[in-house]
């Protein structure tokens, strides 16, 4: 790994101190699985992306949390895109992920800051099994009547799977306290990466939170994979009229504010955009 570099970035950050930290490792060849897992645990961020150039604009990428490899990670993809853009220039990078090719377009946004936009694999959603829903509510300490009937619970997918639970009131989202080990066990049984907990502020604005106990992290400040899955969920259920653009605010209750811009086309993958800022030190 002598020719490798490691960059620490905050993805979906609008200002220093915001966003979700990610490690971006770039080298001539990927380390062994054990070495990647060990390094991700040492870094301690919710995910670290490991990239190896294949040819031209194609890059092999794998994602590791402190506890496990994950099939796809949105915020580490955004962080990787910004690092690639700063190192090799603006343009499109085609990331070969474990779930398929994910194009990432990189360049300055309207403010002039470097930003990246990923296009997810094809999204889908399905009904949440009764035992999963009951178990998740029990772990969260929530009752069924707290849920928004206009946004039904479902498992949403856009590279990884997330349980969508929508609340009627913002105040309930602000008070997140859950049984960490019990929720992690439940999520493993149902092959979930995070819970996508949401409150609809208006037609195109959502406040979101994402517990990630299966990765050894209490909560993500920004979750691009879940944002993409949520966009697909809304389109599939006819809860938005595409093409449309959403703004998701995450990390507010953690004091790590993050902003995720989600573009929902009429068909195909969901586009998720965010900035990336270097983490000093």
What's the short version?
It contains 6 helices and 17 strands. It is an alpha+beta fold and 281 residues long. The protein folds into 2 domains: 5-110, Diaminopimelate Epimerase, Chain A, domain 1; 124-277, Diaminopimelate Epimerase, Chain A, domain 1, CATH 3.10.310.10.
Give a structural overview.
The chain has helices spanning 33-43, 74-88, 130-140, 170-174, 180-189, 224-236; strands at residues 5-11, 20-27, 47-55, 58-64, 69-70, 91-97, 100-108, 114-119, 124-127, 154-157, 161-167, 194-202, 205-212, 217-220, 244-250, 258-264, 271-278. The chain has 281 residues and is α+β, with helices and mostly antiparallel strands. The chain has two domains: 5-110, Diaminopimelate Epimerase, Chain A, domain 1; 124-277, Roll (Diaminopimelate Epimerase, Chain A, domain 1). The two termini are 21 Å apart.
Characteristics:
281 residues, alpha+beta, 23% helix, globular
């Amino acid at each position: 790994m002598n020719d490798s570099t490691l960059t620490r970035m905050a993805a979906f950050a609008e200002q220093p101190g915001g966003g979700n930290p990610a490690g971006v490792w770039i080298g001539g060849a990927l380390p062994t699985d054990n070495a990647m897992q060990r390094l991700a645990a040492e870094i301690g961020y919710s995910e670290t992306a490991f990239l190896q150039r294949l040819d031209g604009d194609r890059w092999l990428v794998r994602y590791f949390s402190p506890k496990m490899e994950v099939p796809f990670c949105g915020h580490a993809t955004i962080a990787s895109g910004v690092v690639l853009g700063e190192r090799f220039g603006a343009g499109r990078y085609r990331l070969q992920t474990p779930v398929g090719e994910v194009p990432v377009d990189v360049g300055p946004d309207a403010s002039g800051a470097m930003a990246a936009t990923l296009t997810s694999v094809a999204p889908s959603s399905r009904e949440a099994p009764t035992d999963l829903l009951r178990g998740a509510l029990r772990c969260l300490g929530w009752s069924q009547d707290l849920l928004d009937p206009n946004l039904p619970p479902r498992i949403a997918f856009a590279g990884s799977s997330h349980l969508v639970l929508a609340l009627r009131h913002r105040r309930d989202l602000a008070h997140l306290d859950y049984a960490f080990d019990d929720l992690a066990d439940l999520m493993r049984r149902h092959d979930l990466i995070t819970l996508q907990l949401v409150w609809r502020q208006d037609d195109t604005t959502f406040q979101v939170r994402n517990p990630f106990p299966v990765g050894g992290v209490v909560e993500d400040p920004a979750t691009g994979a879940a944002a993409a899955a949520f966009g697909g969920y809304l389109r599939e259920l006819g809860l938005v009229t595409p093409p449309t653009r959403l703004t998701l605010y995450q990390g507010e209750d953690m004091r790590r504010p993050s902003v995720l811009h989600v573009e929902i086309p009429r068909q195909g993958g969901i586009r998720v955009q965010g900035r990336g800022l270097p983490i000093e030190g």
